Known about the structure:
The structure holds two protein chains of two kinds.
Chain A: H1 15-40, H2 44-62, H3 69-95, H4 100-109, H5 111-135, H6 146-161, H7 165-169, H8 186-208, H9 215-241, H10 250-255, H11 257-287, H12 298-326, H13 342-364, H14 371-399, H15 406-440, H16 445-454, H17 462-480
Chain B: H1 2-12, H2 20-46, H3 55-59, H4 62-90, E1 106-110, H5 114-127, E2 132-137, E3 141-143, H6 148-152, E4 162-164, H7 165-168, E5 172-176, E6 178-183, E7 188-192, E8 198-202, E9 205-208, E10 212-214, H8 220-225, H9 232-251, H10 255-261, E11 263-267, H11 271-287, E12 300-305, H12 316-328, E13 331-335, E14 339-343, E15 346-349, E16 352-354, E17 358-361, E18 365-367, E19 384-385, E20 398-400, E21 405-406, H13 420-439, E22 452-458, E23 461-467, E24 475-480, H14 481-494, H15 498-513
Parallel strand pairs in B: 1-2, 1-9, 2-5, 9-20, 11-12, 11-17, 12-13, 19-21
Antiparallel strand pairs in B: 3-4, 6-7, 7-8, 10-18, 14-15, 15-16, 22-23, 23-24
Amino acid sequence: MPVVTTLSEADAPTPLRMWYDRWIGILVGTAGGLLQGMMLHSSLLRTALLGAAFGLVFGLVFSKRASSAGAGLIWGLGSALLFWFLILAASMLRLGTHDSNVMLEDARGRFSALAAYLVCFGAPVGVVLGIRGGILPDRSRPPFNRSRAIVAGGLAGVVSGLIFGHWMWQGAFFPLIAGLGDIQSQAAKVLLQFCVAFTIGATFGLLFQRDVRGYGSCMGWGLGYTVFWWFAGPLTLFPFSQRRPLNWSMDAASQLFGALVGYILYGLILGVVYATFDRAWVRLFIESDPLNREAEGPGFRLFRSLQWGALAGLAGGLVSSPFMFAAHVLSSVAGVSTQLSTLSGLLVHLLVSTFIGMSYGVLFRDEASNLAMAGAWGWVFGLIWWYVGPLTLLPLLLTGEIDWRISAASALLPSLLGHLIYGACTASLFYVLEQAYTNKHRLDPRMTARELRRLRPVGTPAPALWFFAMGMGVVIPLLLA
Amino acid sequence: MALVAGAIYAACAPPVRGAYADSIMAAASLGIPIWGITSVILLPLLSGNQMAWDAVGMQGHFAPLVGWILFGALLGGILQIASEIAEIRFGPETAPVLSLSVNLPRVVILGGGFGGMKAAEYLEEQLGGSVSISLVSDTNALLFTPMLAEVAGSSLEPSHISVPLRSSLRRTRFVRGRVTGVDFERRVVVLDEAGTESRELGYDHVIFALGAVSNYLGLKNVEKLAFDFKTLLDAIRIRNHVIEMFEKADRETDPEVRRQLLTFVIAGGGFAGVELAGALNDFAHGIFPDYRNLSIDELCVTLVHSRDRILPELSETLAAYALETMKQRGVTFRLGARLVDAEPGLVTLSDGQIAAESLVWTAGTAPNPVIRTLDLPTNARGAITVDSTLAVPEHPAVWALGDCAVVIDSETKKPCPPTAQFALREAATIARNIGAALKGEPASDFHFKSLGALCVIGHQTACAELTVPFASTRSLRFSGLLAWFLWRGIYVSKLPGPERKIRVLMAWTLELFFPRDIIQTIELGGKESHAGSHNAQ
C-alpha cells in the first residue's frame, strides 16, 4: 500500500508569487544568456533569448520547488541539462536525422553549450529563485542552523580534501585545482587545494543542510554538487581568475577528465564525512535521548539494514553477473588482469556484491519511499560504485596505481551498465524487504509514525539530483570517450 | 516498449497532486536506465545482433539515449496531467485506513514463554491484521532459559537473557496478569491483573502455553527451604545467596560452619541441575581469591541425583564424560540418592546427610497448577491432553502446547519432551491450525524430530548429541571445547534480537579478561526471604 505524502504549503504558491518568479527567471536567464554570449563570443541576442526562454520555463515549472538556494541550484542544474537535451533533439529534428554518430558529433560540438547552460542558466536562475523562495515564509520548511552548516561542511570539506594528501605531498596531483595553470610553490598548491576543499564543503553545508537526510543522499548531493564544481571551477573560474580565455570545448574537458573523477570522489567522500559530522550530534545527543526514543533503536535498524543489504546485494550481484560476464569484467576485476577463472570471478563478484549491498543498506536505508525512488537511488548508487570501484579503488588495491584518464574510463565503460543494473536490483530488493517489514508492523502506531517521519516529502530536489547526477555521470564518459 | 515503461513507472511512482516538476525530472532520470536496458541490452539481443558494450558500441546508441530521456520527461508530465484529470473526474484516491477492528477474531495466548511468544509471532506472520492477538503473561519478558545458569553463575547480567514482550511483539496486545480461570462456555479468560480487580478477556481461540513450575513431590520442608531454578528472579537469588554465603564464611571462625556455608547442594541431575552445578562451581572458584580467610578445601558443590547416571537425556558415554569432567573440576556427586528432607543447615538424603546452608531444587517440574482448576482433560501430572493437531478434545477453539500439555507426535506416537525446541514447533503448528480453522480448512498434525541436545558442564566444556539428518536412528556425539563453541554459537543465535546477542557476546568477551564481580544486587535477610518465590509461579 503506498503511503500518501502530502504537499507542503510552499506547493500552493500565490498567483502574485508565480508572476514574480517568471519575471525573475526571465531576467536572470537573460543576464546569464548575455554572459554566455560574451564568454563564447556568440550572438548576444540569440543567447539572451535562449536564457530568457530557460528562465521563463524554470519560473513556470520549477520555481516553486526552489525553496532554498541549494534546492534552487539542484533544480536549476537538472533543468539546464534537460534543456540541453531538448536543444540537441531539436537540432537533430532540424537536420532531419536520428543517426547516433551524427548526434554524438553534434553533442560534442555543443559541449560548450552544456557548460554554458549549467554555469550561466541553471545555476544562477536556480540560486536566485531559491534565495527568493528561502526568504518567503514557509512553516513546513525544516529548521536551518547556519553555524552547524559551516562548521560541519567546512570540516567535512577539509577532511575529505585529505584523500588526495598522498599525491599532494608528492607534488604530483592536485585534482581540485586542476585547470588553475602553473603554480610553482608546492605550499601554495596545497593551500589552494584545501581552500577549494573548504569552500566546497562549507557551501555544501549551507546549501543542502535542509535537503540531505542521511549518508546516501549526502553522497548523491556531493556527487551532483562536485560535478557542477568541475564545470564552475577548473573549466570556468580558475582560467577566468588568471585572465585566460575560457575553453569549454570537448578537448579541454577531456584533458580535465581526471579532475572530474577526482571531484566526484571528493564529492562522495565529502557527502559521507558531512553526513557523519552532521548526524553525529543527532545520533549521540538527540536520538539517544529517551524522550525521543522510537519503537526500535538505531542499532536494530542498522542490523536489519545490514541483513537486507547483504541479501539484496547478493541478488543484485546474481542479476548483474550475466552483464558483467558479457562485458568480460568477471575474469579481469576492474580491468586489471587478475587471471581469475570465470567461476572464481563470479564468486568474487558475488562476495563483493554482498558487501557493497550491505553498504547500500547502511547508506541509503532512509531514502526511498516508493519503488521508483528506490530504483533511482539504486542507479545513483551503481553509478557511484562505477566511479569508486573499478575506476579507483580496485586498481588502487590491485596495482597500487590509479588511472583516471578518459582512455581508462572508456575501457571500463562496458561494466557501467552492469553496475547500474546491480544498483537498481539491490535498491529495489532492499526496498521490497524494508516495505515487507514495515507493512508487517504497520498496525503498530509507533512504526507508522516513524515511517511517516522517514518519508522524503514531495518537493525536495531529489528528482533533479537523480537526473543531473545520472545524466552527467553517464553522458560525460560517453561524450569524452 | 514505451507503453510498458510508462505503465511500470506509473505503478512504481504514483503521482502526487501538483508535483509536475518532480514527476518530469524523476521520469527523465529513469529514461537513462531504460535506455541501458532496452537500447543497449534488450533490442540488440532480440534482434539477434551482437551486443556492443564497448565505448564505441555504446556511443552508437547515443540517439536513443537522448530519446529515452526526453520520453521520460514527457511521460512524467503527461502522467501528472492524466492523474490530475482523473482526480477531478473520479475524486481523490483515498488511502485505506488501517485500524484495530473490534470485530476481528480474537486469539488469546496464555503464557509468555517460548511457546506463547512464538505462537504470537507466527500468528502475526501468518494471519497478519486479520486477527486480534492478545498475550497474557505474569511477567513482561520472555526468559531465555538455556542461559539461566549463566546468570546464576554471574557470567551474564539478568537483563541479557530476557526479552521484553511488549517491544518484541508488534501486533500483539500484551496483558500483564495471572490467569485465574477460564469460562469455556462464555469464551472468556479470567485474569487477576497485578494490584487490580479481576477482569475478563474474551476470545475466539485460546492457546494454553502456561509452562511448568517446580514440583517438590510433597517434600514440604524442601519446598520451604530450597531455591527454585525456574525464573530470572530465582537465578538472581541464587547468585546473591552464593555471595552471601561467602561473606558469612569469610567472617566465620568455626571451620565446620564455614564448610557448611560453602557447601552448595543441587538436587536433580538433568540438564538444569548439571548446568547449574557447573556454573556455580565455576562461579564459586572464580570469586574465591576475593575471600582471603577461606580455604579452597572448604568449598563443595554437590549434585544429588536419584539415578545411577546424570543427564538421562543424553547417551551414556556423554553422561559419563560429563560426570568425569565435572568431578575433575571439583563437583562432587551423590548418585542413586534421593532428597528426602531438609532443615536449616542440613540436607537429608536417602543414604545420608549433607551439612549445607544452600539447596537448589531442579529435580522435578509439574504443569502450571492453574490447569488443575480448569475443566480440561489432563493426565496424572496435570498436563492438558491434546490431539494430534494440538487441539484440546471436546473443547472447541482451545489449544495447548509446551510444558503444560501432553503432546504426542503424530508419526512416532511418542510423547514429546517438554523442551523449547519442541514448544517452538508446536507454536508454529497451532498458529497454522488456527489460520486453517478460521478459513474452514482442515488442521494439520504435529510432528517434529528433535535436532539434538547440548549441555554445558563447565568452563569451555560441553556435551553435544546431534541428530544426523536423514538417519533417524543415528546421532553425532562429541564433547569438549567444540561442543562448548557449538552451544554458545547456537544459543546466542537463538537469542531474540540483535541487541541481546551483542550484549551477551560482549559479556562473554569481557569474561575472558576480567573476573566475575561479587556485588550483591539484592539484600537477603535469610533463606525465608525467597520462600515466597514458590508461590509466585
